[in-house]
Amino acid sequence: MTTANPAPISGSTTSAAFAAQQTYPSGPAAPRRRIKRKTWQSIVWFVGLIVLTAVVLYPLLWLFLATFKPNGEFGSNPGLLPNSPTFSNYGKVMEGIAGVPMWKFFLNSFIIAASAVVGTVISSSLAAYAFARVQFKGLSILFAAMIGTLLLPFHVVIIPQYIIFNKLGWVDTFIPLILPKFLATEAFFVFLIVQFIRQMPRDMDEAARIDGAGHMRIFWSIILPLIKPALITCAIFAFIWAWNDFLSPLLYLTSPENYPLPIALRLYNDQTSTSDYGATVTASFVALLPILLFFIVFQRFLVDGVATQGLKG
Question: Is residue 234 part of a domain?
Fold first, then answer.
């Protein structure tokens, strides 16, 4: 009985098997070395972050606790905690000043800020689409002129604007504060949205144009949903800037019933009489709350807008 001899293994096959064993060793893979941060480094970072947070939040904490100080303690008690806490400052603020209740000042500020948000978002997005997607003569010149307005101080145009609005009879109304927001006068927001649109591919625009869509259809159905993070970013800054604006309402509003909160705060400090520091601090804190709430609600959209700046299709 003869046994069949196995086929001889060629040299190339043996070399390949040996190379495979050397390249991919059998058995479990070696665990990766995990770099552990030393304990003292973690403690230093933790303490540093706590100190930095305390420094940032201290003014806000002082402002909140100062609302409970009587008016006489602002010169004698510079500390953080009040010696004789009181809620009378909130009562004074809610009563209002100059015969106008506090809710009226809040309403005026909300009307101006909300109108500024709507006008800025609409006009800036339309102007940005024109600069980013529409080709027309003088595009580069107009865009450069718009960017140049960022270097123009606001104080240069105060007198001409006031003369125009005064001749139109719009002084002591909200129109001078609201109308420019609907005319894309905020070059910063236009530039922000332009850069956001330019990073988007033009393939979607061209496909929609082949299907017969015009510029307004492309803007409304394609571009507008994609620039939502940029629009929310513009809305946040427009609301904060309009809510805190002091100079423009000071120029155009003369009646106390039309004052927003920044102008109303000035009424609590009269140079000819005793200033009510307790009511001033309390009114400042109350005026700050809407901005904090607005930012907390929309901050995730602001982060999304910054995060998507580097994405390209």
Answer: yes
Distance CA 68, CA 285 (A): 11
Whichever domain contains 187, its CATH number is 1.10.3720.10
CA–CA separation, 163 vs 171, rounded Å?
A: 10
Rounded to 10°, the helix 187-198/228-244 angle is 170
Range of the domain at 174: 116-310
Q: What are the pLDDT tens digits along the chain (313 aa)? A: 444 444 444 444 444 444 444 444 445 555 555 545 578 888 888 899 999 998 988 888 888 988 888 877 777 777 788 888 888 888 888 888 878 888 999 999 999 999 999 999 999 999 999 999 888 888 889 999 888 888 888 888 889 999 999 999 999 999 999 999 999 888 999 999 998 898 888 888 888 888 888 888 888 888 888 888 889 889 989 999 999 999 999 999 999 899 999 998 888 776 555 677 888 888 889 888 888 888 788 777 765 655 554 444 4
Domain assignment present for 219: yes
- The total domain count for the chain is 1
Tell me how far apart the alpha carbons of residues 121 and 109 are, in angstroms, rounded to a whole number.
Answer: 18
How far CA 273 is from CA of 93, 98, 101, 267, in Å, comes to 18, 14, 21, 11
Instruction: For residue 152, tell me if it sits in a domain.
Output: yes
In terms of Cα–Cα distance, which of 91, 95, 94, 86 is closest to 68? 86
pTM of the model: 0.76
Does some domain include residue 257?
yes
